[in-house]
Each structure stands twice: as structure tokens, then as C-alpha cells.
Q: What sequence folds into this?
């Protein structure tokens, strides 16, 4: 009996001590302040001050119901700043601050309302008479870039609501990519940098692909500024390429070492016997650090046999026209040469061209599996090589009305140089796009395809059935899928 009394007394002492410790060390919320950064209708910042340093987070949800989101935990501090991102415009939200400890302390529910969307961002992205199954997109968002003024990047959800955007006051946004560290890398430039002039330009009736290519140092869609931002809109890096004499275009990515790798204009002097001195233009792959210091450059001119190049005279203003940089699983480069209707793999260290896939390449392909003036080749998470086959200049289709663009994927045996078709997903003929465009696989297995010339972004299955369609009021160079997990740095679902 004495034993049990001792246990009761000890328990009471422990409880009293715990209670004393709790109340003497009680953490309280002193102030909660809300601000809307840059007056955006899609973001809200919550600033919390505590009386004592502690961990804290915020729970928030739409007032009319829906998913409860939680910010990541802000570690021990008196002052905490929470970024609530991808909110819906003109919507009411509730939230509460939670002090994260053994016995959580929660504030009372509070509320705020986002302002209406900026008029210049309001657009009928989804048309009711077009396919619009929002479930086809899954839980991610779609990133689009606007190269006009003011230039911006916007993320749109399956309902056609803009949930995030970033804007530049002076430059258009040519294109963007997601980095391995969860940021966005964008290429900016004024439209005045485009060049369409070309000496000895063939007739518009010409079927020669060289008619459509760039000319000179700048060429089409030349970029002048690189910027890296995080998803709060904070600028991490801004590199003035113009001052460095670098013209970047078509594609820029960040590698696993957080270096910037992009396609740049490149040239050599035509020193062929019997030919007038001239500048031969093409493209190269350049690597720089995030301060803009050039680390290396791979130029095909260094190993190109110009003496025996029968196409060089007609294509000397834009011989290679690379439109993609991506990485194979071994970190070597993959690029697209649409003039050759080929994808090239390049050793990132030696610069050797390891293989060419496509017409007259190193892999034997069936005629129906050849691709023409392709864009955006890359390796998917499941290992296929996926690209967007524009289909221009294809012998399969003699008239424009019959031409068709498509996503097409291959399983490659790189050792034995064999390629087998994994799937082909043609988009409707009315959305044929001779230039630009892209195809990416979503987490749910659907495909995100961009028909740039028609301003259409489509979600199809792997047979080409369209489940969802976005209508842009501009020409999107490509649309990117932004998975839900990219927001894990800022919130938990």
C-alpha cells in the first residue's frame, strides 16, 4: 500500500513540475501581421512575432472548404515569416498560427481575402466546348512564358486559373526551365533582338528548310538576360549576357552541379578553298556558373568536316540550329538538330558525338518512326527518349492540311544502337505546328503537348486522345509541367 502511495506522490510531483515548467516557459503569439508582396493576388505573407523563440507553422484553407494546407515548420525564432503561395484570386481564406511544441498552441482562426486578378492576366484559358477534364492534369500546374510586354511566367491549374506568376517590367520571357534545386531559370530578351533578314533568301514558296532558319549573330529568339528565381519570386541570380557578348536561345537548363548549360550562337570562318571568306553560323553548348563565368563550351565546328559538307552553302547562316539541351542519365548532353532531323548525344567531357538518332543516323528506324524538325528530346523518368515530332517537311504528308505533329518515344539500346517505338501520340491535325512545341510525360502517365503556332496546350493519353486543352492568346514556346512536390520547400499538403 505504501508503495502505491509513493507512486501517486511521485506522479503528482512530476505533474506539478511539468506544469510549472510549461507555464513558466509558455510561448505566446505577440503579433500577427499580413502583407501581400508586390500586391499580387496569389500570394500572402504572414509575419508572426513570439514572446520566446520557438518553432511555428501556419495552417490555411479556403473559407468555403477544400484542402487544408500547412506551411513548412519555421525553426526556433522570435520572428517568423510564412509565404502562402498559389492562392486563388478574389477568394477568402482562413488560417491559424501553430506553435509547434509537445502541446501545440494554436491561434484563433483568422481570415484574409486575395484581391481580384490583374486585368492583363485575365483570359479565357479553358473553353467549355473544348476538352477540359481537369483531372487529366493531376495535382500539378502548367508553366507558360509570355515573350511580349510586360513579360511574365504564369502557372495555370486544370480549371484555367492562374495560381502563380512572376513579371519583368522591361523584358519578355522567352522560355524557362525547372532546376534541380526547385527554382526557375528563365531566359529574357527584348523582341527587337529577333533577326529575320537573310541574304539570298529563297522564295516563300520554297520547300527548302533553310528559308525558316535564323541568320547572323543574334538569330531568332536570341536571349540577353538570364534570371533564376525561387517560387516566392525572390531573384537569386541575374546575368547580363549582352555585356558578356553571349547570345543564348532556345534552351537553358541547370545541371546537377547547379551550373547553367545553354544553347548559344557560335561561328567559324569559312576557309574552304575556292569559297569567298564568310562567317559560318551555328550553335554550341555553353556551361557557366551562376555568376556568369564561362566554364566550357562545346562547338561542333571544331570537329565538323566543312570541306565535304554538301549542305553548308545553303545552310551557312544557321548550320546546326540546335533547339534543345537536356541530359542523359549518365549526364552527357542530348541536343536536337532539326535541320538534320536528328537527336545527338554528345560526351560532355570529350565533346565527341556519341550517336545520332533519326534520319540517316546510327539507329535503324522504321520509316513511320522517323521524325522531322523535332523539339525537346529528353529522357523520361522511366528511361524512354521522348521528343516532340513537329512533322514539317515530312514525306508522309504532302500538303499542310494533312501534316500532323506528335509526341513520340523510343526505348534505346545505346550499346547495340537499336531503337524500338515505345509510343506515338499524334495531336489533332488542326493543331499541327511547324515550329517550336514540346512533349513531356506527366506523373499520371498522360502527355503534356504544346502546339505553339496554334497557341494550344494539350493533355493527351499515349495514343493521342485529347483530354484537356488550354487556349493561349500568344505563342507559347513550350509548356512545362510543375509537379506538386516542387512546393514542398514552402508547404505540406
A:
Amino acid at each position: 500500500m505504501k508503495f502505491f502511495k509513493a507512486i501517486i506522490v511521485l506522479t503528482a510531483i512530476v505533474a506539478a513540475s511539468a506544469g510549472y515548467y510549461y507555464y513558466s516557459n509558455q510561448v505566446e503569439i505577440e503579433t500577427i501581421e499580413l502583407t501581400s508582396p508586390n500586391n499580387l493576388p496569389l500570394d500572402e505573407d504572414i509575419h508572426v512575432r513570439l514572446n520566446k523563440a520557438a518553432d511555428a507553422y501556419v495552417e490555411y484553407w479556403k473559407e468555403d472548404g477544400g484542402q487544408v494546407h500547412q506551411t513548412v515548420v519555421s525553426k526556433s525564432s522570435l520572428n517568423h515569416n510564412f509565404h502562402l503561395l498559389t492562392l486563388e484570386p478574389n477568394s477568402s481564406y482562413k488560417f491559424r498560427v501553430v506553435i509547434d511544441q509537445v502541446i501545440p498552441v494554436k491561434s484563433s482562426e483568422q481570415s484574409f481575402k486575395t484581391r481580384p486578378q490583374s486585368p492583363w492576366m485575365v483570359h479565357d484559358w479553358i473553353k467549355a466546348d473544348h476538352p477540359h477534364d481537369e483531372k487529366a492534369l493531376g495535382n500539378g500546374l502548367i508553366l507558360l512564358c509570355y515573350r511580349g510586354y510586360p513579360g511574365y511566367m504564369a502557372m495555370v491549374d486544370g480549371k484555367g486559373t492562374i495560381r502563380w506568376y512572376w513579371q519583368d517590367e522591361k523584358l519578355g520571357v522567352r522560355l524557362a526551365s525547372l532546376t534541380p534545386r526547385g527554382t526557375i531559370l528563365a531566359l529574357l530578351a527584348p523582341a527587337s533582338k529577333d533577326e529575320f533578314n537573310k541574304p539570298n533568301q529563297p522564295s516563300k514558296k520554297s520547300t527548302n528548310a533553310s528559308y525558316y532558319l535564323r541568320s547572323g549573330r543574334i538569330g531568332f529568339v536570341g536571349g540577353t538576360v538570364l534570371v533564376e528565381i525561387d517560387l516566392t519570386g525572390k531573384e537569386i541570380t541575374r546575368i547580363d549576357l549582352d555585356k558578356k557578348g553571349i547570345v543564348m536561345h532556345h534552351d537553358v537548363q541547370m545541371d546537377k552541379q547547379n551550373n547553367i548549360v545553354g544553347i548559344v550562337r557560335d561561328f567559324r570562318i569559312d576557309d574552304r578553298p575556292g569559297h569567298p571568306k564568310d562567317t559560318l553560323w551555328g550553335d554550341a553548348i555553353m556551361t557557366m556558373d551562376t555568376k556568369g563565368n564561362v566554364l566550357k563550351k562545346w562547338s561542333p565546328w571544331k570537329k565538323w568536316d566543312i570541306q565535304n559538307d554538301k549542305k553548308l552553302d545553303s545552310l551557312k547562316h544557321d548550320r546546326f540550329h540546335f533547339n534543345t539541351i537536356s541530359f542523359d542519365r549518365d549526364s552527357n548532353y542530348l541536343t536536337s538538330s532539326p535541320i538534320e532531323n536528328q537527336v545527338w548525344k554528345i560526351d560532355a567531357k570529350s565533346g565527341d558525338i556519341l550517336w545520332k538518332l533519326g534520319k540517316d543516323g546510327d539507329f535503324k528506324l522504321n520509316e513511320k518512326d522517323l521524325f522531322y524538325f523535332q523539339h525537346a528530346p529528353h529522357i523520361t523518368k522511366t528511361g524512354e527518349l521522348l521528343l516532340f515530332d513537329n512533322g514539317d517537311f515530312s514525306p508522309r504528308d504532302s500538303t499542310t492540311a494533312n501534316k500532323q505533329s506528335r509526341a513520340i518515344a523510343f526505348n534505346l539500346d545505346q550499346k547495340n544502337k537499336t531503337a524500338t517505338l515505345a509510343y506515338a501520340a499524334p495531336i489533332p491535325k488542326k493543331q499541327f505546328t511547324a515550329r517550336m512545341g514540346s512533349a513531356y510525360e506527366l506523373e499520371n502517365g498522360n502527355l503534356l503537348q504544346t502546339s505553339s503556332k496554334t497557341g494550344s496546350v494539350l493533355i493527351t493519353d499515349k495514343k493521342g486522345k485529347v483530354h484537356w486543352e488550354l487556349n493561349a492568346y500568344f505563342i507559347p514556346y513550350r509548356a512545362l509541367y510543375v509537379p506538386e512536390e516542387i512546393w514542398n520547400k514552402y508547404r505540406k499538403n
